[in-house]
Amino acid sequence: MKGTRRTTLITLMLLPSLALLAVFLFLPLLRGVELSFYRWDGVAPVMHRAWLDNYAHVWSDPFFLRALGRTVIWWAMHLCLAVGGGLVLAALISEIRWRRAQTLFRSLVFVPHIMSLAVVGVIWSQLYHPTIGLLNGFLHAIGLGRLTEPWLGSTTFALPAVGIASAWQAYGFYLVIFLAAIQAIDPALHEAAAIDGAGAWQRFRNITVPSLHNAISLVVVLAFINALKGFGTVWSMTEGGPDRSTELVAVYAYRQAFGLGDIGAASAAGLSIAVIAVVITVSFNRWRDRAALGR
């Protein structure tokens, strides 16, 4: 009876959260699945059934395939810059022995993550401005004016430029995860290695990184999911331009829905990338579990 009462209490406490998930997540998801099988412009009172035509249209659209390729590149940049930067900074901050200084630095590096994507877009757009931007101004100041570019107006540099801005906004989140995992490592391991003459780099490579196996696995999955959702920074900085060179899958779906009035194709594109995300995430987790058992 006591266990039943406890289960009932837990269920009642979870009901508000489950209700919010149902209203704002599950129902829209089901609605998106339904819309992907219809041809509809979002306004007409009648929707025409299209079955799998929307999926065929999306996967035969070269713009979607290019957006998918850019999304992969975006994820790679996110992984190297945001995740890699978060790991390195977490390792450096963990070496600070003065607790107040460590807390200060941890708070400062987390500030970009709490900024809205629109604010981040505005800040970095000003940094990249071809005439008054700090980046080109700095290049001129050090005598490298020949390297200046209209960064967000170049089909070559726009995607890396926006990717750097996105990584700057995200690295603080990964840093906190890595820092928590690093602080859970037994200090005796580092002390023993230091006594044996291991330097900071050797301790980081041979003790810290192997001990972060679970944290790294988690962060890789989160980085992949965040890369698929890369919309806010791109839209606030370039709107997918120039010449659609920064158009990710999320931007492609938005353009299909609100630019071309094709809600069915937008839903098909969004669900396609969601299925890809689920498949890759499940496959990666299974591989990680098998690798952990094989160690």
From TrEMBL:
<comment type="similarity">
    <text>Belongs to the binding-protein-dependent transport system permease family.</text>
</comment>
<keyword id="KW-0812">Transmembrane</keyword>
<keyword id="KW-0813">Transport</keyword>
<dbReference type="InterPro" id="IPR035906">
    <property type="entry name" value="MetI-like_sf"/>
</dbReference>
<keyword id="KW-0472">Membrane</keyword>
<keyword id="KW-1133">Transmembrane helix</keyword>
<feature type="transmembrane region" description="Helical">
    <location>
        <begin position="215"/>
        <end position="237"/>
    </location>
</feature>
<dbReference type="InterPro" id="IPR051393">
    <property type="entry name" value="ABC_transporter_permease"/>
</dbReference>
<feature type="domain" description="ABC transmembrane type-1">
    <location>
        <begin position="68"/>
        <end position="284"/>
    </location>
</feature>
<feature type="transmembrane region" description="Helical">
    <location>
        <begin position="104"/>
        <end position="124"/>
    </location>
</feature>
<dbReference type="InterPro" id="IPR000515">
    <property type="entry name" value="MetI-like"/>
</dbReference>
<keyword id="KW-1003">Cell membrane</keyword>
<feature type="transmembrane region" description="Helical">
    <location>
        <begin position="157"/>
        <end position="182"/>
    </location>
</feature>
<dbReference type="Pfam" id="PF00528">
    <property type="entry name" value="BPD_transp_1"/>
</dbReference>
<feature type="transmembrane region" description="Helical">
    <location>
        <begin position="257"/>
        <end position="280"/>
    </location>
</feature>
<protein>
    <submittedName>
        <fullName>ABC transporter permease subunit</fullName>
    </submittedName>
</protein>
<feature type="transmembrane region" description="Helical">
    <location>
        <begin position="72"/>
        <end position="92"/>
    </location>
</feature>
